[in-house]
Amino acid sequence: MAEAWTEAIRRKDSPAWQPLPWQVNPFTDCSLALLFTGGAGGGKSRLAAEMLHTFLQANKNAMGLMLRKTRQSMTNSTVLFFEREIVHGDRRMQHFPSKHRFEYSNGSILAYGGMQDEEQREQVRSIGQAGGVDMVWLEEANRFTEADYNEVLARLRGTAGPYNQIILTTNPSAPSHWIHRRLMNDKQAAVYQSFARDNLYNPPTYLTTLGMLTGMERARLLEGRWAQAEGIVYAEFDDSNITDEEPDKERPIELAVDDGYVDPRAILFIQRTGTRILVFDELYHSRHLGETCVGEVVERCKQNGWPLPELACGSPEAKDLQQRFRMANIPYRFMAHKVVEGIKVVRKLICDGQGVRSLQVHRRCKNFISEFTEGYQYPPEGTKSDDEKPIDGSDHCADALRYWTWLRARR
């Protein structure tokens, strides 16, 4: 099969593509699971797309599947990339957006979709001859849960080619992520790493930009390390908890609040659907009056077409803020609890120990994500026992979510 793939690249009627030096070996690797990881800009996605495309060209009536966590992100990014850079006007295949698939002249099909909810998962289950798929590509794989991976893995029973394969492309996340634990540490995948410097097509300005990164983003996107800040409180929080999904404008929303003035005041916008909790926006201000912040909450809801929050949850000490919310017809509630007990409840929402992540945070909530991945830490010399409190400081979004969770989401 490796020879057939090499010949497919050499054919004059196939789109021109010359693999980078690091891409040559993985291109002909027939392992069941391939993981392409490392820094940003190394050419991971291009390689996976070329492999999937070549497989479908080389094997008649093959069934391919291209997935991102959400169908929207797949349609708005990966599908456009595949159509413009991989298919590149090749008339031997046609794109049928209404069917969510590409059809090849040799009978092969490349379907695409997401696994965000049950409706999207059900669509994935219906793909393929007798439910079987020959090759799958998971783009931004760190967004998928281990349960997603297991479900897709069970679909690899197509018979059109000499083997089946699942390809995962991802930038690094936390070392606790299931991909690092299972595919890398337990050696359940053939792993290939690349970096921006390995991609000859990157402009010099891109390498300069990556070199300006600091902290966790530098470790992961430039250095390609599965890294995590030392002593981080919510070690379970990773890219699988981050989403691009917007709230449903027809469903109620609530607020989680940590009061402050010199220290930042954090206000989180939250929507709950069943057991799923979406933090979809934030306010994060220093030296703003409570009246100003509550007014901004109301105005932001009006501008985005969101309903007025039905409830605000915070600490009992925020007397003035309580009054300001009530004047805006937003009830304010609180429930006293121990910090360490509240942290335990939040942890279960981040990841319940079985791979289920009820908490999803929109990526525009930059301060929230920064606190949960880098800022909210235990004392460096502490014992990190169950009754030890984290360091004060970078904890405003974390405290706001804890107040809300203790009152509204305990199980």
What would you say this structure looks like, in words?
This protein is α/β, with parallel strands linked by helices. The chain folds into two domains: 2-222, 3-Layer(aba) Sandwich (Rossmann fold), CATH 3.40.50.300; 239-408, 2-Layer Sandwich (Nucleotidyltransferase, domain 5). It is 35% helix and 18% strand. The strands form two sheets. Strands 3-4-5-2-6-7-1-8 form an eight-stranded mixed beta sheet, sandwiched between helices. Helix 1 (2-10) crosses helix 3 (44-58) and helix 12 packs across helix 14. The longest helix has 17 residues, at 71-87. It is elongated and about 70 Å long.
Layout of strands and helices, then pairs:
Elements (H helix, E strand, L loop, with lengths): L1 H9 L13 H4 L5 E6 L5 H15 L4 E5 L3 H17 L5 E4 L4 E4 L4 E5 L4 H8 L9 E5 L6 H8 L11 E5 L8 H8 L4 E5 L9 H8 L3 H8 L19 E2 L10 E5 L6 E9 L2 E10 L4 H15 L7 E2 L5 H9 L4 E2 L5 H12 L8 E4 L3 H10 L20 H13 L3
Parallel strand pairs: 1-7, 1-8, 2-5, 2-6, 6-7, 9-15, 10-13, 12-15, 13-14
Antiparallel strand pairs: 3-4, 4-5, 10-11, 11-12
Count up the helices: 14
Give the N-terminus to C-terminus distance in angstroms: 52 Å
CATH topology of the largest domain: Rossmann fold
* CATH architecture grouping of the largest domain: 3-Layer(aba) Sandwich
Task: Specify the structural class.
Answer: alpha/beta
Binned, the helix content reads 25-40%
- Largest sheet geometry: 8 strands, mixed
Elements, N to C (H/E): HHEHEHEEEHEHEHEHHEEEEHEHEHEHH
CATH superfamily annotation of the largest domain: P-loop containing nucleotide triphosphate hydrolases
